[in-house]
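To fix ideas at the outset, we first show an illustrative case, written as a sequence plus integers encoding its fold:
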Amino acid sequence: MKVALIGVGQAGGKVTERLARFDAEMGFEAVRGALAVNSAKPDLQSLQFVDTQLIGADRVNGHGVGGDNELGTEIMQSDIQQVLGSLDGRVTSSAEAIFVVAGLGGGTGSGGAPVLVHHLQQVYDVPVYALGILPGRNEGSLYQANAGRSLKTIVREADSTLLVDNDAWHEQGESVEGAFETINERIAQRVGLLFAAGEAVEGVGESVVDSSEIINTLRAGGIAALGYASEAASDDSSENVRTAMTVSRQALLTGTSLPDATTADSALLVIAGEPDKIPRKGVEKARRWLEDETGSMQVRGGDFPLDSDRLGALVLLGGAERSARIDEFMERAREANREQEQDRTDPAEQLVDDRLENLF
């Protein structure tokens, strides 16, 4: 799937750089352009592998918005033409989709990404998706409140929003703060493999996934989740039937970017590995299991020929917003929003309306 990437804010820029670097190192050529946008100049200067664009210089003088996502929204709205101008030549006719990447808990990313998605929808005739990163439970109430409002807004604007929960892809016992590099690397590897499906790959599979199947899976809109797992493969494909089932189960049940998200409107199963090691019977068996587990009749499946001694499974879920994890997060965000508001207003006002408002 050929994509253009636009990272907004600190986390968005770092993940975008990792994705572009992973794609280049693997030789997939799925990423056709990458730009990082931020209001903090030092964060942009640390990025070496992507083009950069500073916004809000007249408001914050390159120092960032300090976690104020309403200010992040205002800055992106003010400088949107400048950002869109920077995309000329980077979003080319070869791009089949645009991904706006952002951490939803900070200021510039959570406030600016929904604005950018909104304007991209008006300019480009390809799907505009969001790749949003949710703050972990232990990150402060400001980040929870920011992410709640940002998520509510960006889901409305994007064709689909692929969510990564910071609590999902880091080692047990490791603090989220100390694990950002690990989390970013895992996002890059997993999402990068999804982008690469059907692009420059080794060998010829029996039923190779192409970009249209990814787009059709995400057509349900709303929230999407991505799962991944892998195991060592046997040289005999018949011995890999059980392995294909195992990695598919692990990808959905323990390896998703949104833990506990198993119910979905649509799904895509991609089995990656050397073509002669991918068991046709195992792929079909895993696809039927995924159909039962997600409750969806729209489950697509296919191969991703890859030069590897392992067999991997990617599971993409579309329309996964009925997850209990989303309900839990939104309640946490609402509570954090109430805490934030109580610091600024008369607490009695919270009895009138404590909803999470859209950013714009």
